[in-house]
Amino acid sequence: MTLTAPATTHPTADAPLPAGLRGYAVLLRRNPNARNLWLAQVVSQLGDWFNTIALLGLLVELTGNPAAGNLISVAQIVPVAVASLFLTGVVADRYDRKAIMMISSLARSAIALSFLLIRTPETAWIAYAGTVAIAIGTAFYMPAASAALPNIVAKNELSVAAMLGQTTFATMLFVGAFLGGAVTTLLGREAAFIANALSFLISTWLVWRIRSNFSIQRERQMLSGASALRVLTEGVRYLRENAFVRGYLLAKPAVAWALGGFGLFGTYSLTIYGTGDFGTALLFAGRGVGAFISPLLVSGTASLQDTRRLHRFIVAGMGLVILGYFLFAFTRSPISGMLCAGIAHWGNAWAMTLSGLIVQANTPDYVRGRVLALDTVGWAVVSALSNLIVASVAIRFAPQAGVLTAVALTVVCVIGWLIGMRRISADPQSV
Question: pTM for this structure?
Answer without folding.
Answer: 0.70
